[in-house]
Structures are given as C-alpha cells and as structure tokens.
C-alpha cells in the first residue's frame, strides 16, 4: 500500500521510523533505495509503475540536493510525502528541507519536518484510512495513547 523509498541506504536509520509506525498500524509497505541522481532510470520506472503495482501513497526521503520526492511526484498521480533527511555533510538540513519543500505550482510534495519519517508514516496511514474504517480505529487508538501520555504526566 505504501512505497517507502530513499536516496541512499545511509538514509535508512531515519526512514525506518516510517516503516515501524506503518507496521504498528498494520499498513503493508515496501522499502527500497531509489536515487534521483545515481539511479534515475530506476526512479523513473518505480514512479511510473507504482500505481499499477497497487501502491496508494509514496513516502520519499533524501538528503542534500534532495530531488527524489519532487521528481517522483512529477511522474505519478499518487500522493508523495517527502522526508528531508539531515545527511552527514548537510548544512544543518536546510538543503534537504528546501529541496523538498519548495516545489513549483502543480507538483505538490507533502513535506514533513526534518528527519520526521514517523510523521510521514502516520500521514500515509491517515490518507489510506479515508477508505478503511478499521484503520481509522487504529489511528484513533494511536492518538488516544498520545493524549494519555500527556494527561498521565502532568507538571
Ligand atoms: C542523498 O545523499 C541521500 O539521500 C543521502 O541522504 C545523501 C548521502 O548519500 P550517501 O553518500 O550516504 O549514499 O542522495
């Protein structure tokens, strides 16, 4: 249901958070390394075939000149959620954030916060829950846990 892709295996320690929350919410996903710059043909094929392979949402994470989410969004009508990854030689992550966030009119990428792959997973599940009442219930339970954690730890 959800295709999680990243520009490099070095992004996995961040992007794993998306996979973990999707697993917790019982949403099927796949994980792949697809680089906009190093494997552009693979990126093209992945994006063009994603919908017909049954994917409903794509989560794409990359760092630096992070063109992967935007390029994938240009090649598919599926919603693309972008995760800016703070890579080791990045300028505090601003390179990744702005590369993913500042898309031109007509080609949106739903950009989450720096390294916020967990939020990308939750957002993907919320998109899918529009057509899945059981997933709505699991998301409601997840949010209830967030509420309880706050209420059970007063100042
Ligand atoms: C980007 O360059 C990747 O998404 C990664 O965040 C960054 C560094 O990649 P590696 O040099 O570690 O493969 O393309």
From TrEMBL:
* Catalytic class of the enzyme: isomerase
SUPFAM superfamilies reported in the protein's UniProt record: N5-CAIR mutase (phosphoribosylaminoimidazole carboxylase, PurE)
Reactions catalysed, as given in the entry:
5-carboxyamino-1-(5-phospho-D-ribosyl)imidazole + H(+) = 5-amino-1-(5-phospho-D-ribosyl)imidazole-4-carboxylate
List, for all copies, the residue spans of the domain called PurE.
1-150
Tell me the superkingdom of the source.
Bacteria
> Pfam families per the record?
AIRC
Q: Which GO terms describe its molecular function?
A: 5-(carboxyamino)imidazole ribonucleotide mutase activity; lyase activity
Role played: Catalyzes the conversion of N5-carboxyaminoimidazole ribonucleotide (N5-CAIR) to 4-carboxy-5-aminoimidazole ribonucleotide (CAIR).
- NCBIfam families, per the entry: purE (TIGR01162)
The name on file for this protein is N5-carboxyaminoimidazole ribonucleotide mutase
């Amino acid at each position: 249901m959800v295709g999680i892709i990243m520009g490099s295996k070095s992004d996995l320690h961040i992007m794993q958070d998306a996979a973990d929350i999707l697993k917790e919410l019982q949403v099927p996903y796949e994980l792949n390394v697809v680089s906009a710059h190093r494997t552009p043909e693979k990126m093209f094929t992945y994006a063009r075939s994603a919908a017909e392979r049954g994917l409903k949402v794509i989560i794409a994470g990359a760092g630096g000149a992070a063109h992967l989410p935007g390029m994938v969004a240009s090649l598919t009508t599926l919603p693309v959620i972008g995760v800016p990854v703070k890579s080791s030689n990045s300028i505090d992550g601003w390179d990744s954030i702005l590369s993913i966030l500042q898309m031109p009119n007509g080609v949106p990428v739903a950009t989450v916060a720096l390294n916020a792959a967990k939020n990308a997973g939750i957002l993907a599940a919320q998109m899918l829950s529009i057509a899945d009442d059981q997933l709505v219930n699991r998301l409601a339970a997840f949010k209830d846990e967030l509420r309880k954690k706050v209420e059970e730890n007063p100042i």
